[in-house]
Design a protein that fits this description.
The structure holds 2 protein chains of 2 kinds.
Chain A (H helix, E strand, L loop, with lengths): L5 E11 L5 E10 L3 E5 L6 H9 L6 E6 L2 E2 L10 E4 L11 H11 L4 H14 L15 H14 L4 E5 L7 H18 L2 E6 L2 H7 L2 E6 L2 E6 L1 H6 L4 H6 L4 E5 L2 E5 L4 E5 L6 E11 L2 E8 L2 E7 L1 H6 L5 E6 L3 E2 L1
Parallel strand pairs in A: 3-8, 3-9, 6-7, 7-8
Antiparallel strand pairs in A: 1-2, 1-4, 4-5, 9-10, 11-12, 12-18, 13-17, 14-15, 14-17, 15-16
Helix pairs in contact in A: 2-3, 2-4, 3-4
Chain B lengths: L2 H35 L11 H8 L1 H34 L3 H9 L2 H4 L2 H12 L4 H8 L12 H25 L3 H9 L4 H29 L3 H6 L7 H11 L3 H27 L7
Helix pairs in contact in B: 1-13, 2-3, 2-13, 3-8, 3-10, 8-10, 9-10, 10-13, 12-13
Classes of the chains: A alpha+beta, B mainly alpha.
The complex binds adenosine-5'-triphosphate and magnesium ion (MG).
The site of adenosine-5'-triphosphate (ATP) has 14 residues of chain A, from α1.
């Protein structure tokens, strides 16, 4: 993995809307064959960055290159990207077949090949046989799957996905994630994926970019982001996290990194049991420490010996200090 | 009384006044005119002569063809110009576009007579353009007065803003996202137009065209002030039959002919409006 080729490079890119919202000083290298996820709360600028890459927004300053060539002056139709839009953007006056075939026809692909491809990709998104329907006759989730198929069929070297699974139920979502990973590996394409679902980001990506208010907070592998959050925002946004105050500093520690023992004095923090909740094979306990409520995971055995109001002590394992 | 019967009675009661007004003011005169058009002016016996007159008399036949020519030219030019204008207003974001977007309807607010007279003072052979020409030593004679082209020009003044208004509304209903989707998969501007914008707006274009056509078949003010003595627009021909020659049966026949010409266009309009697009079902 040493000499990897850079596919997409964003260099000090700023995009400001007229009202002052937007993103600024964005720097990012994405390698060929990588799945990179933009993760962040609503309104943090994920779509904005994706649209500047796709060519639907002009950048205010900075540059974007694909394979070393600047693309910021190219119109969308000349860019080597394909996008799955947050709002699907299917063409209402065309059948599903025509929607899927449109881009391929522009590429002068023979009809027999297009027909076979349409069939194959409809199968892939679990929607076989709906060639003759119109987008208006499909549910939101079904339209979303057609939009995904439409982009995948173009086999773009850079695929941009803006919350492509947001309208799908848990089961299909899982299935589509696996399909996406598989297609990505088969075709060796580079994927930028936008989501605000951290679990999705964790399971799908080679690297995650955590965003907040128009800026990049941290870029790293899922493990790096989870284990060594760079900022308080990242720490609170990804996974469960307790924030404990000690000597003017904040200690961020995950529930699974706290060891609970009965009685005071056994760890760094003394606390009182607040609630105990059985969640199948493990138990979630919350404990009161001064003003803070701390969440920990304990085993069944210990939970049976504890009741609300009991004193406990907490030993901190892996943690981050801010 | 059953519930559905009651509901039906209420429904009929609600449409009855409108129905009566339409019957009395529109249907009754039309029926009367149609009957009259088949009657001999002296004996009142059934005859087709009133119609035959307009299709056999060379001068009258010319009037019909002339009217069709002026109307179709007006429709063609007005729709093309209005479509281009509407495309510009929809897709260009600039101060100029915004200003034009606010001002293009102004001609509709000028009373027809004033507009026609204003146009005449500019284009007639001794008008403004001619005088400006004289300053530079050219005697410009446009020859637009009493000629089809002058009338068509005047019709455009009225009809372009109207057609643009209708088409702009149609184009406004096409979201940017549709166009972005098309460009994303590689469609250039021309392809976006032919594959997305045109099919999604053609209905409004056809409807605008039928309206422009219908409003010009029976037009009177412009041809009266700007038209020549022969051939004449049908509106003037009808005026002559009725007011000058007092030929009421022929007037009725000509009215029916004009009505039939309009109804072709009305048919197109109703067909386009009723025909639900496959994707809208
Ligand atoms: N066309 C626009 N004009 C002005 N401001 C905009 C425009 N589009 C987005 N914004 C603003 O830019 C910021 C970022 O928007 P963006 O759509 O990129 O967010 P996002 O991260 O994709 O959010 P979500 O998860 O809700 O889709 C927001 O504050 C939004 O209000
Ligand atoms: Mg978004």
């Amino acid at each position: 993995m040493s000499e990897r080729k850079i596919k997409l490079q964003i260099k000090d890119m700023t995009k400001k809307y007229d009202n002052g919202d937007g993103v600024e000083h964005i720097n990012l290298d994405i390698y060929e064959g990588e799945i990179v996820t933009f993760l962040g709360p609503s309104g943090c600028g994920k779509t904005t960055i994706l649209r500047t890459i796709g060519g639907f927004l002009d950048v205010t300053s900075g540059d974007i290159t694909v394979d070393g060539q600047s693309i910021i002056s190219l119109p969308p139709e000349k860019r080597p990207t394909a996008m799955v839009f947050q709002s699907y953007n299917l063409w209402p006056h065309m059948t599903i077949y025509e929607n899927l075939a449109f881009g391929l026809k522009l590429r002068k692909i023979p009809k027999a090949e297009i027909d076979a491809d349409v069939k194959k990709y409809l199968q892939l998104v679990s929607m076989p046989g709906c060639e003759k329907k119109y987008p208006g006759q499909l549910s939101g989730g079904q339209q979303q799957r057609i939009a995904i198929a439409r982009s995948l069929m173009l086999k773009p070297s850079l695929l941009l996905l803006d919350e492509p699974f947001s309208a799908l139920d848990a089961k299909i979502r899982q299935q589509m994630r696996e399909e996406l990973k598989k297609i990505q590996q088969d075709l060796g394409i580079t994927v930028i994926f936008v989501t605000h679902d951290q679990e999705e980001a964790m399971s799908l990506s080679h690297r995650i970019v955590v965003m907040n208010k128009g800026k990049f907070e941290q870029t790293g592998t899922p493990a790096e982001i989870y284990d060594k959050p760079a900022t308080l925002h990242v720490a609170s946004f990804i996974g469960e996290m307790n924030f404990l105050k000690k000597d003017g500093k904040t200690i961020a520690v995950r529930p699974e990194d706290l060891t609970v023992s009965q009685g005071h004095g056994g760890g760094q923090f003394d606390a009182t049991v607040r609630t105990i909740m059985l969640l199948g094979h493990y138990v979630v306990m919350t404990a009161q420490h001064g003003e803070d409520v701390i969440k920990c995971y304990i085993n069944r055995d210990l939970s049976e010996r504890l009741k609300e109001g009991d004193p406990v002590s907490l030993a901190v394992g892996k943690h981050t200090v801010f | 009384m059953s519930k559905s019967l009651k509901r039906n009675l209420v429904a009929y009661g609600l449409v009855l006044p409108a129905f009566l007004v339409v019957m009395l003011t529109v249907a009754y005169p039309i029926v009367l005119a149609v009957i009259q058009s088949f009657q001999d002016s002296k004996t009142g016996a059934f005859t087709l002569d009133n119609y035959a007159y307009f299709f056999t008399e060379p001068a009258q036949l010319k009037n019909i063809l002339y009217t069709l020519y002026v109307c179709l030219m007006t429709v063609a030019i007005a729709i093309v110009v209005a479509y281009l204008l509407a495309l510009y207003l929809r897709f260009v974001r600039s101060r100029i576009a915004k200003t034009i977007g606010t001002l293009y309807l102004v001609p509709r607010f000028v009373p027809a007579m004033c507009a026609v007279y204003a146009m005449i003072t500019i284009i007639r052979d001794s008008g403004l353009i001619n005088r400006i020409g004289l300053i530079f030593g050219h005697d410009v004679k446009l020859g637009l007065m009493y000629h089809a082209s002058g009338m068509i020009m005047m019709n455009l003044w009225f009809n372009i803003p109207f057609a643009a208004l209708m088409i702009t509304a149609g184009l406004g209903a096409i979201p940017d996202s549709i166009i972005e989707g098309a460009r994303d998969v590689g469609a250039g501007k021309f392809k976006v137009f032919t594959s997305m914008i045109l099919p999604l707006s053609i209905k409004d274009v056809v409807v605008a065209a039928t309206f422009v056509f219908m409003s010009n078949v029976g037009s009177f003010t412009t041809p009266y002030l700007m038209g020549g003595s022969a051939p004449k627009m049908l509106g003037i021909a009808l005026f002559d039959q009725f007011n000058k020659y007092l030929a009421y049966n022929r007037s009725a026949a000509l009215s029916v002919i004009m009505f039939l010409i309009c109804s072709v266009s009305a048919g197109v309009y109703i067909y386009t409006n009723l025909k639900e697009n496959e994707w809208e079902k």
